[in-house]
User: What shape does this take?
Amino acid sequence: MAQQPALPFLPDPAEVGRLYDRYTDLGSATLGESLHFGYWDTPDSTVPLAEATDRLTDLMTDRLAIGHGARVLDLGCGTGAPGTRIARRTGAQVTGISVSGRQVERANALAASLGVADRARFEHADAMDLPFAEASFDAVIALESIIHMPDRAHVLEQVARVLRPGGRLVLTDFFERAPIPDSGRAAVDRYLREFLMTMIQAEDYPPMLRSAGFRFEELTDISEPTLRRTFVELSARIGGSADALSEAHGAELVEQFDPHDMIDVAEFGHLLVVATRNGK
Assistant: This one.
């Protein structure tokens, strides 16, 4: 099957946008400006979470194989930290999109504050219906955003349309590494439900990519260097400042954000996918 949601629902883009409008500030207060998982080279690494999230951005950016002036689409841009980092690090022209108006506002403000507003711009748009012409981009990056989209296969078709032949797509996704036991199922279901996400089977990606017009390049399980440590860091941050966070963002939202129950669900996985658009 090309789409295997873990729950009997599919995320609605408008609802996802409203969710991120609500918790963008809380996410920044806990994860930092890069609203995605960190990457630690070794289990005993002392790298702080903010640097670890930059490392994951860099790991994915390196796989884009881009240089100065390349046109990059950041599919699900968050508050702009990855996109502005890509622009500063590579000299690329980055266009980021999000279904959250609050995130787009924050992302453009960040680009202006960093002096890269001429090379990194962000707009409100839906990946299910990309408002760009064919072959508009040299590369597309999607950092933990396809998890929120109701039809992965359709999104890949949209990406293939706006990506030039030979251009590269790099994304991360959630997948089931092994059957999730009863002891972890409730935590996974809650995590996916609360944040309007689905997960997939890793073996579904190669045929989906081929069907959309891509040549499959890489499928790597990056769960070990990313998931558990990020969940531990977030749980500690939330637990250590719960009162202040609740006062600033609301107790209900803080409770929703708590990832503690996900720390030891080893069957919940994080997947890195790389593909190249067919043609020359």
About this structure: The domain at 13-277 is CATH 3.40.50.150 (Rossmann fold). The chain is about 45% helix and 20% strand. The longest strand covers residues 163-176.
